[in-house]
Amino acid sequence: MNTIGIDVGGTNIKAVLISPTGEILRRASLPTEAQRGRDVVIGIIHRGIELLVGDVATGDLGGIGIGVPGSIDFDHGTVLHPPNLPGWDEVPLVALMEERWKVPVLLDNDANCAALGEANFGAGQEVSHFIGITLGTGVGSGIIINREIYHGARGYAGEFGHASIDYNGPLCACGNRGCIEAYVGNSYLIANAKQRLAAHPESVLYAMATDDATLTPKDISDASAAGDPVATRILYDVGCTLGIAISNAANLMDIPTFIIGGGVSAAGKPLFDGIRETANTRVLKVHRGGIAILPAALGNDAGVMGAASLLA
Amino acid sequence: MNTIGIDVGGTNIKAVLISPTGEILRRASLPTEAQRGRDVVIGIIHRGIELLVGDVATGDLGGIGIGVPGSIDFDHGTVLHPPNLPGWDEVPLVALMEERWKVPVLLDNDANCAALGEANFGAGQEVSHFIGITLGTGVGSGIIINREIYHGARGYAGEFGHASIDYNGPLCACGNRGCIEAYVGNSYLIANAKQRLAAHPESVLYAMATDDATLTPKDISDASAAGDPVATRILYDVGCTLGIAISNAANLMDIPTFIIGGGVSAAGKPLFDGIRETANTRVLKVHRGGIAILPAALGNDAGVMGAASLLA
Asked: N or C, fewer C-beta in 10 Å, chain B?
């Protein structure tokens, strides 16, 4: 049966109606209006579903899966304190949605949904175990074990972004040092890049190295694609830091596949070269040369498609 | 039914017959004679079982579980290239044992068996998810998820000793840098301790800081227990390095419990203080204060008892 996937972001709520094979039949996107509080946001989620199926869910609808940006009490289907949704202390979202729509509803973390989307419809379709990593402001990730989301003891698993690769390394917003997010999260990545560019007047990006200049990951990718060797080296080195964290996760969990998406992953070859070479050099001998680093295939649809497949 | 557990070590083969509740009914230990090759060693395994049950397994015996120091092809019950057992290229140990003893036989890695032993009969009986860590020449570990051994994609999971906490850190025998084993494995630990002791003539261990003096982890524990503050600080700092790696694993896998055994874990309080304080400071806020560090309860019996419970 067809299912609905919802991705509740801090900025937009996205919804899709998909077939069991992952064909997107309809889609909707509405501003979250998070600052207006939980009841308004829940109303917008309902509105998104109405745009897909009308006022009443028909017998064709297998259920609704929802990805939310925060922690979940899986036993009660409750969203717990999502940091980007003011006023959502503990929201029994499963109960609220099932009452309105009379179909089964499942929740999961948005990063877990993105990984599940890649597992079911994207780059992970042939892979039993992988970690999906989404690069952006933060580093989101979800762990897939035997083709299911791995939740850990209490549902908090998958914080790959807060695996430290240097206990004396740069301070991370979480309070720890050397977390991978403190190297490849957008603001950290840009700050590092500016620092390096300041020593390279030959780079086309040199003018953007000043403190008050805007520099984006896309600027760096574009400069690399146009042949700027400094930009290429910056992206390669970002890949190397990711490769270090990947080798640690591969050793600990015997997970030999990593699917990389989000912002800076669009940089392509230099980033992926850095990841692949470092990960495959640093892992234990039994894994060496066997760590596969795949680009994500679904782009921004990974989260909603994964949410829709929670019911599968 | 009663089961037999075997631990095939590089030096000794240990065997126990245990009841379903973990009571050790009989035990045997024989030299492995590893250098005499696989057929001799397999004969010694048979001899160990004979010492427990006589020539013929009776209907009272539920099966035999075997822990081996190396990788396993689980589909075929084959031991693959154990580094400490010369001549064991690919040994179909399950088939060989089932043919002789006519009971079900299961294999697993020895570190996984030790973790399973603690889960079923030791410090992990009330815990759903934990990592069992055995400190010694190397750092052995096994991951328990939902009370079962977690094997990963191909059976290699659990290499906690080769999680790096500093990508520029000390070189590990595996080729990577900053692996936790390169801080707390016995030879690394002793080398670090000697270096520190050389600057502390007030320590009772100062005379053992010279290059050619023998210093053991037990010497350091004993000195600490007798009130030597330098020894206590060394053990505390070893605990801190373990705590860093533990916080990384807790963040990634949402595993909030760690059971620590083996050699230097006998040092007790200073080591455990270092682990607990560091792990609970560095983890993400959701885990802070909630990471439990438990001493292992079964000592050297963890491996054989876990092996015996593979059949459960």
From this structure: N
Q: What is the pTM of this model?
A: 0.94
Q: What is the CB-side half-sphere exposure of residue A51 using CA atoms within 13 A? A: 17
Tokens of A121: 């419809």
- Residue position matching structure tokens 């991705």: A7
Q: Strand A292-295 and strand A148-149: pairing?
A: unpaired
Among candidate residues B281, B297, B304, B308, the one with its CA nearest the CA of residue B130: B297
Whether A157 contacts chain B with CB within 8 A: yes
Span A138-170, pLDDT tens digits: 899 999 999 999 999 999 999 999 999 999 999
Task: State whether A128 and B153 contact (CB < 8 Å).
Answer: yes
> Is B263 in contact with B136 (CB distance < 8 Å)?
yes
DSSP E strand boundaries for B136-179: 139-145, 148-149
Cβ atoms within 10 Å, residue A1: 12
Helices (H) and strands (E) in chain B, counts: 9, 13
Burial classification of residue A10, based on how many CB atoms lie within 10 Å of its CB (0-12 exposed, 13-18 middle, 19 or more buried): middle
Model confidence band, residue A82 (pLDDT cutoffs 50, 70, 90): confident
**Packing angle of the helix pair B229-253, B186-197 (nearest 10 deg):** 140
Inter-residue contact A278 to A243 (CB < 8 Å)? yes
Q: How many residues comprise chain B? A: 312
Q: What is the DSSP letter of A161?
A: G
Name the strands in the sheet holding B78-80, side by side, starting at the edge strand that comes first in the sequence.
B71-73, B78-80, B90-91
Residue with tokens 């200073």: B270
ipTM value for the complex:
0.94
- The distance of Cα A58 from the centroid of its chain, to the nearest Å, equals 32
Residue B39, judged by CB atoms within 10 A of its CB (0-12, 13-18, 19+), counts as exposed
pLDDT score for B58:
77
Q: Residue A230: helix, strand or coil by DSSP?
A: helix
Backbone φ/ψ region at A291: left (φ over 0), alpha (ψ -120 to 50), beta: beta
The answer to whether A253 contacts chain B (CB < 8 Å) is yes
> Looking at residue A179, what DSSP letter applies?
B
- Chain B, 123 to 152: residues with Cβ < 8 Å from chain A are 128-129, 143, 150-152
How does strand B78-80 pair with strand B90-91? antiparallel
Instruction: Tell which residue, A220, A296, A304, A306, has the closest CA to residue A30.
Output: A304
C-alpha neighbours within 13 Å on the C-beta side of residue A262: 19
Reported as a single tens digit per residue, the pLDDT across A173-186 is 999 999 999 999 99
- Among the listed residues B208, B262, B261, B260, the one whose alpha carbon sits nearest the alpha carbon of residue B234: B208
Q: Are B243 and B279 in contact (CB under 8 A)?
A: yes
What is the structure's pLDDT at B84? Answer: 83
Residue B83: predicted pLDDT: 82
Residue numbers of B between 54 and 83 with CB closer than 8 Å to A:
71
Q: Which amino acid is at B256?
A: P
Question: Which residues have C-beta within 8 Å of that of residue B53, sequence separation ≥ 6?
Answer: B4, B17, B61
